[in-house]
Amino acid sequence: MKDFALLFRQANYNYSKTSPEEMKEIDKRWQNWIGGIAAQGKLATGGSRLATEGTVLKAGGVVTDGPFVEIREILGGFIVVKADNLEEATTLAHGCPALDSNGSVEIRPLFV
């Protein structure tokens, strides 16, 4: 088996306008989806949700506010899964809650 990173990209969704009840439902969908992958023995690491604030270091030592605020989709989080090949890793990505809000899942093999 190989390790694959599933990178969650979402449109710049403003969670500050989400009610606590809606946030619980969103969290539940993520927990159920990741739990399903774990139940199959395919979860390599739990990954993490990423904060929206941060900085970006560019060539020449330039530090800018970020991350990547100039693009429409932001990297919202990641997990690492175990799969036999890219096709299986892509199948595991189906059902990702990011897809419910017009987001995407980028599936990338890891070199280890």
Which residue ranges are poorly predicted, with pLDDT under 50 across at least 5 consecutive positions? none
The SSE string, one letter per element, is EHEEEEHE
The end-to-end distance, rounded to whole angstroms, is 12 Å
Major β-sheet profile: 4 strands, antiparallel
Number of domains: 1
Outline type: flat
- The count of helical stretches stands at 2
Strand composition percent: 35-45%
- Secondary structure class reads alpha+beta
C-alpha Rg, in Å?
A: 15 Å
Q: Which CATH class?
A: Alpha Beta
What is the CATH architecture term?
2-Layer Sandwich
Lateral strand order in the biggest sheet: 2-5-1-6
* Mean pLDDT reading: 84
> Which percent range fits the helix content?
25-40%
Tell me what the structure shows:
This protein has a single domain, classed as 2-Layer Sandwich (Alpha-Beta Plaits). It is of the alpha+beta class. A hairpin with a 3-residue loop joins strand 3 (54-58) and strand 4. It is 25% helix and 39% strand. It is flat and about 40 Å long. The strands form 2 sheets. The chain has a 4-stranded antiparallel β-sheet with strand order 2-5-1-6.
Give a quick rundown of the structure.
With 112 residues, the protein is α+β, with helices and mostly antiparallel strands.
Secondary structure elements and their pairing?
Layout: E1 2-11, H1 20-39, E2 43-49, E3 54-58, E4 62-66, E5 73-83, H2 86-93, E6 104-109
Antiparallel strand pairs: 1-5, 1-6, 2-5, 3-4
